[in-house]
Amino acid sequence: AGFQGGSWSGLDAELRADALDKVAQRLEARVGELAELDARTSGVTITWTALMTRLVPVIFRQASKALRSGLLRQLHPGRYGAVEVRAVPLGPVALIGPWNAPTTIIAHKLASALAAGCNVIIKPSEHVPHSTGLLVDAVLEAGLPTDVVQLLHGDGAVGNSIVSDPRIKAVSFTGGLTGGRAVAAACAQDLKPVQLELGGNNPLLVLADADLDAAAEAIVAGLTTLNGQWCRAIGRVIVDRSVMAPMLELVKTKLGTVRLGHSLDPQSDMGPLVHRQHLAQIQQAQQSLLKAPSSTALNPTATPALQGHFHPPTLLCGVPHEQALEELFGPVATVHPFTSETEAISLANAGRYGLAAYVFGDEQRALELAGQIRAGSTQVNGLSLLSLAPTAPRAAWGLSGLGDEGTLETLRFFTGHRVIGVGGQP
Ligand code: NDP
Fold first, then answer.
1. CA dist 409 to 131, 320, 392, Å?
2. 87-103, pLDDT tens digit by residue?
3. In which region does residue 318 sit, left (phi positive, over 0), alpha (psi from -120 to 50) or beta (all else)?
4. Residue 238: strand pairing partners
5. Ligand 1 test: best mutation among 44, 48, 52, 99, most atoms within 8 Å of CB?
6. Is residue 198 in contact with ligand 1, taking CB distance under 6 Å?
7. Residue 196, ligand 1, Cβ within 6 A
8. Which of 106, 163, 371, 423 has the most CB atoms less than 10 A away?
């Protein structure tokens, strides 16, 4: 009813952009609170949640800028004059988020859907419900019509009831493969557009001529960023056999200095895993991988004398590659030696995911190899939580997702085209 009333969808794009800027302004004053809420609920350290929540107002401003660029209305030359291509909002849409980076992920979906002119229903993860409430407060305080954003708390069954509802016209989902498949199946009934950002088992390649210190630094960052609970975290380290021993030695030294601690302590490099069940899953998966004969665990990080679901960042060596292809979504990765670049690429491309990859080595050669890896994005000689370019699409291959995300991409996802113009004789 809210959508049909047109209080938001019927607004001129410029006015919607103004409103999004006001939301950004409100959020700028509250990024500290958002960071603390996310650190308390997800276990991600305050240093990381502060970095990510600082992006939240920026996300709203980017959506506003995209809206002002004329994205929603374009003119094409037709045989009988200009033909108008309008990108109009699909209708009321559902946004479903995970627990690892709750505010940033929902903010991106929310800003894009609002820019498109959609009314939204948000279901955050039940494990991290608080920060989304603050986001919705900011939207309402900025003066958007009260029926534009609805926040519904609940578990996966609640999420399923929303995405299955024929009144919902599109779904943007970030989460795991099981949930993603269930959402896709529910959307199939009404042929509802669905955007899925799922998991990964991301390879990090170390070539013989790599800067081993930089590679080791990246491996530690890949294991500890967001406590290893990050869709672009490293899953497999694929390393030239000739440099494997010195590289592991460097990683061991660096892991020994990682400070595992309270998520609200700015001195902590890494916090506890999100909840007891997730810790149990990671421990179980690790034990199962370590059943392989001659497999070993490299995990010299000290565990703090605190209550919490702590798991040290860990590299597992000697695990057969074919047993290491599932996503763990925790601070654990496996190590696999290679003897030729062909073998390295074949290992990197094994498995059904295709989200992110990293290559360390001579820049030119690494860039050439990067193009051969089936992944949405490949970083050469670096590993960062931030995208290579803020305007580039965030793509996914295979079981890692469906449909690119990005400032323009997600905004477009929430719209459908209407082509209008004067016709003539056949
Ligand atoms: P889940 O798939 O368990 O949950 C994601 C969200 O979907 C939650 O809000 C959950 O509800 C809900 N949900 C679960 N089942 C259904 C269903 N059938 N219909 C509708 N909604 C449902 O993922 P996690 O929260 O455990 O997040 C971790 C996963 O997210 C990892 O696999 C990770 O790789 C992926 N991820 C991907 C990112 C990317 O950009 N590609 C970014 C971040 C995470 P509830 O949990 O409340 O029950």
1. 25, 38, 9
2. 999 999 999 999 999 99
3. left
4. 205, 336
5. 99
6. yes
7. no
8. 106
